[in-house]
Amino acid sequence: SRVYLKPRFVMFERISFLLFGSLLSCLAHGETLQNRWQELYQNTWQNTPYALTQNELSRYPPALLKSSALYPDFKTFTWHDLRLLNTAATHCQSIKSDNAKLNRAIEFELALCRGKQLKPDWFSSNDVMHPAGGGYADRYLKKYNNIEPQSLMAIAPFTTISNPINPLHRKLGSLSPQGRDALLNGYRAWLEADTLWLGNESGLKAVSASVWQPLAQKANLSLQGENCAFTYSNLCIAERNTSTISWQIVLTLLGGICLAFIARLSFLKHKQRREKRFILQLLTHELRTPITSLGLTVDIF
């Protein structure tokens, strides 16, 4: 029986070796793609000027640059706090709270309803975010739209990025809220339409398609493929040459062959055990018959 199974075990070992080798090749292929993507990133970065340096970004409150700035701050305030604030704003009535930040918000709402103008220093010395969402500066400028230019310039940096008077709106306005959030949260790349945005600790760069697409083609990489070798932020990174056989398909086929062979081997072993059992039963029967006949002969004598 060992001689009968040995060739199959040898074949199984060969298939396992091929499968393992294919897996290593696939992993090496993935590492190569990542290396090529990193090289593409570096080449693209070096060929593009800054859209916004980190020094420029640091002049503005980070919270106002993210999409979450437009929504109520439930980490600091409760629904009860927001109802108190709404009551103070609606009835122009002073309400005291144990929350110091809420008291400042009530002070702000009372100033608006009483027609009191605030100095630019008020916005720089207080929290920039309104409890109900948006910046204090956004709500203030919506109320007073005839502020003198000097005061307007001083207040503008404390508005949210979605406000056209924010100095960064022109530079980052073409980015979607998701793209801005991704880059500000540390992602180093984001594709917005045909513009590839890159970022690192020194700032942000907006790379036009005329720059990054030839470099990607030279690296044989696609950033907008359907079958991704790997993803990064909203990029789908894969080889540009679609005629190349997918390594995942190769692995799947080899895995299927391996499983089929194991199933076949198990079936043959089970069949062999049945044949052995049948032969043993047959031999037992053949031995039992002469013994029985001999017993009958002895009884006769």
Helix content: 55-70%
pLDDT < 50 runs, ≥5 residues: 1-6, 20-30
Number of helices: 11
Q: What is the CA–CA distance across the termini?
A: 45 Å
What class would the helix/strand composition place it in? alpha+beta
Strand/helix succession: HEHHHHHHHHEEEHEEEH
Main sheet: strands, sense, barrel: 4 strands, antiparallel
Strand order of the main beta sheet, please?
1-4-3-2
Estimate the strand proportion. Answer: 5-15%
Q: Overall 3D geometry?
A: elongated
The beta-strand count equals: 7
Please state the average pLDDT score.
83
C-alpha Rg (nearest Å) = 37 Å
Quick overview of this protein structure:
Pfam families: DUF3404. The protein has 301 residues and is of the alpha+beta class. It is built from eleven helices and seven strands.
